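Provenance

Sequences were taken from public entries as deposited. Structures were produced by running a predictor on each sequence independently, with no templates supplied. The record for Glycosyltransferase from Pyxidicoccus parkwayensis is shown for reference.
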Amino acid sequence: MLDIVDVGKRSLASYRGVAPDEQLDELVHLSEHLRGARCMHVNATSYGGGVSEILRSLVPLYNDLGITTDWKLIHGDEEFFQVTKRIHNGLQGAPGELTEKDKAVYLANAQRNASRLISDSEDYDFIFVHDPQPAVLAALSSLRESRWIWRCHIDTSHPNPSYWEFLAPFLTAYDAAVFTLDDFIPPELPIRDVHVYPPCIDPLSPKNHPLPEKLTKDLLEWIGIRTHRPLVTQVGRFDLWKDPLGVVRAYQRVRPHVPDLQLALVGSLALDDPEGWDVYKEVRSATAGDSLIHVLTNLVGVGNVEVNALQSISDVVIQKSIREGFGLTVSEAVWKGTPVIGGRVGGIPLQLPEGTGGVLVDTIEECAEHMLRLLRQPEEARLLGERGREHVRQNFLMPRLLRDHLLLLNELAAARPLAPRGIIPASSIPAGLQGV
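Predicted structure for Glycosyltransferase:
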């Protein structure tokens, strides 16, 4: 069997007064004909990235609506995850070729996961498969009664042909696909039913829930941040696409003008990202000897609450990606009122429209220029963050993402009706929706 992730319980009613009321009200109606249906989300890891953070909040809310939902993880050896990282990069346009050995490793692991899936998944009405690591499951599985959805979170607009030509034939088994942006849809996608909607943050998660000022400062002092000094922060995986070394160089340009300026580079090291260890070592080497640069990971106890504190207290947050799916850390920081300097790529511009939330940059020089300007003009920085918070509230909080999911499930159920057990009378509203 695939490993199941324990996610606990969440109530949609708790979002009242945080997310827009009209979004919460709509969820009641959209879930009406789905209550009692069974759904499964499958991905590669339960920690260390945006997908896992989304599922940890989204899956309990499915259940609160009366849609019985599980979150399960594929298995794989180290060689498998090295191959899937190359596929991940290749689908984003990285050079290279997928060797016959790579294909064999990927498919052998996928076949084992498909066998595990068959043993415990016969009754699922909907199966979401996230990203490239488990992407071939639908084709290898015999569970054709389920409605299969491939949720691709990365930018596949210009995939390396070596990787795309291998993966694309397996995608014909999917009933629908979901991408973050229209621009991310790859050429000649063999899935006809395609949907586009961006991910969201959970304002009530430990990473985004408001923290008392004293606790914020105590948490950061504990990990070496001096809260009386200015601070800029980048949060994200140690990934060359996120350009952590470019952030270091931009910071070094600003440092002579702000001598006590601190830089925090914060990332999680995850099982499905072996390349992250190499990037982490490179960053450590590039920053060695500078006591004002803090390289922090989950391995030294820096988790969601510490990230929350860093994003809340930083003068500026940076997300200088050179390739990006969405960049949840942008909305996370802006939700806390902190302005963001973001790379003009992927879903970052969607989160930072002109004059709202921060500024977009294309180069290290532009990043340094805007960093210095926002540090010197705190009132401008404050206004950017303030306008950005309302933009996030309207567009990028978890109830909006749940709405998009329910619209898709309703469409798939209309095309191929659910079994009778998949329907609960409309009067049976889950307890968590009382008052919503």
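Residues 97 and 161 are 9 Å apart (CA to CA).
The longest helix spans residues 100-120.
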